[in-house]
């Protein structure tokens, strides 16, 4: 019978045998899969696992600092790399969603590649690939079959010539979470909603600038923190906010305003392939809307997305 404890025990033993004294480099995302995979490898080889956590400037508010802190608490040998400006430069002038994804993916590989080369004699690339990712990358056969190119699925630079170690590639998501619990990984990491690799970059529906990111981070933070404070976070599969390029008229005191519309999206789902919009209480949505409009300069109207997938994808881009 499969149990998380037995899985951890046998996997750590196998990793020890396979990796010996070799060094492994691994990119972490703050998500469940890469964190659990890293902890397993860490248990097997300790400091020979070199983790890299890149700030692409498109993360949630405070995410880079707080996730880096959690990783350090977990004892991981992790280097945080702030590459925000580089990503913004790569994104300059781009508005088309797939072009943004490609630019973000390319910039990530460049940064990761540079950092990995600073470590001497690395033989292995660690990855948090889980079983559904394996299936997906086999079944998706080319651009015509790809609806959105999810760059962090199977996306490793082949010029890096490293062997790949993927300790979770036989597990489903719920099994990964159970393994994570056995490894005593921070519940904040284990229970977190999925977040796309391109981050807020595909939630700003226009050219990306540092200022727009800052605005969207504030909006997103109010919404997600509100879900947590109202005990709604765990009932939602994924939630976030979109910064639309639409400007609307409003009044603030005696003044006319002309500012952006943001859309909130919260869905229930099992695997992200299909999704329903969450029937969040109107009182809650009303409170969040007021808080956003009162606190976030540049936003004067909030709408809630009531579309289901299909046909409406979870992300707007
Ligand atoms: P859609 O928008 O296709 O999203 O309904 C389904 C799930 O995938 C996430 N998503 C991405 N994840 N890179 C990622 O790593 C991407 O380019 C990307 N696009 C969408 C989305 O957040 C949702 O969980």
Automatic annotation (TrEMBL):
One of its GO terms (molecular function) is GMP synthase (glutamine-hydrolyzing) activity. The keyword Nucleotide-binding applies. It comes from the Bacteria. Pathway: Purine metabolism; GMP biosynthesis; GMP from XMP (L-Gln route): step 1/1. It catalyses: XMP + L-glutamine + ATP + H2O = GMP + L-glutamate + AMP + diphosphate + 2 H(+). It is an enzyme of class 6 (ligase). Residues 2-192 form the GMPS ATP-PPase domain. Catalyzes the synthesis of GMP from XMP. Its EC number is 6.3.5.2. The gene is guaA. Keywords: ATP-binding, Glutamine amidotransferase, GMP biosynthesis, Ligase, Nucleotide-binding, Purine biosynthesis. ATP binds at residues 29-35. Homodimer. The chain holds residues 193 to 509 of 509 of the full protein. This is GMP synthase [glutamine-hydrolyzing].
């Amino acid at each position: 019978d499969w149990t998380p404890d037995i899985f951890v025990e046998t996997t750590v033993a196998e990793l020890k045998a396979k990796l010996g004294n070799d060094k492994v480099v691994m990119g972490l995302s703050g998500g469940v899969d890469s964190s659990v995979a890293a902890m397993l490898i860490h248990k097997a080889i300790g400091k020979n696992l070199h983790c890299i956590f890149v700030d692409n400037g498109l993360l949630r508010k405070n995410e880079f600092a707080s996730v880096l802190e959690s990783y350090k608490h977990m004892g991981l040998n992790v280097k945080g790399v702030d590459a925000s400006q580089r990503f913004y430069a790569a994104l300059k002038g781009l508005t088309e969603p797939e072009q943004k994804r490609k630019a973000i993916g390319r910039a990530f590989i460049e940064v990761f590649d540079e950092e990995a080369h600073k470590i001497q004699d690395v033989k292995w690339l660690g990855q948090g690939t889980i079983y559904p990712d394996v299936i997906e990358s086999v079944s998706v056969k080319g651009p015509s079959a790809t609806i959105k190119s999810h760059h962090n699925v199977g996306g490793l630079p082949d010029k890096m010539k490293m062997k790949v170690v993927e300790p979770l590639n036989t597990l489903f998501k719920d099994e990964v979470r159970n393994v994570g619990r056995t490894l005593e990984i921070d519940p904040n990491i284990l229970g977190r909603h999925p977040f796309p690799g391109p981050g807020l970059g595909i939630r700003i529906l226009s050219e990306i600038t540092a200022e727009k990111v800052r605005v969207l981070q504030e909006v997103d933070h109010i919404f997600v923190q509100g879900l947590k404070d109202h005990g709604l976070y765990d009932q939602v599969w994924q939630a976030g906010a979109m910064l639309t390029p639409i400007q609307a008229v409003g009044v603030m005191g005696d003044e006319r305003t002309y500012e952006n519309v943001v859309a909130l999206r919260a869905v229930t789902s099992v695997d992200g392939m299909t999704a329903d919009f969450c029937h969040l209480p109107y009182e809650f949505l009303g409170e969040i809307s007021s808080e956003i409009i009162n606190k976030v300069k540049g936003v004067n109207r909030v709408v809630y997305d009531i579309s289901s997938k299909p046909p409406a994808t979870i992300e707007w881009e």
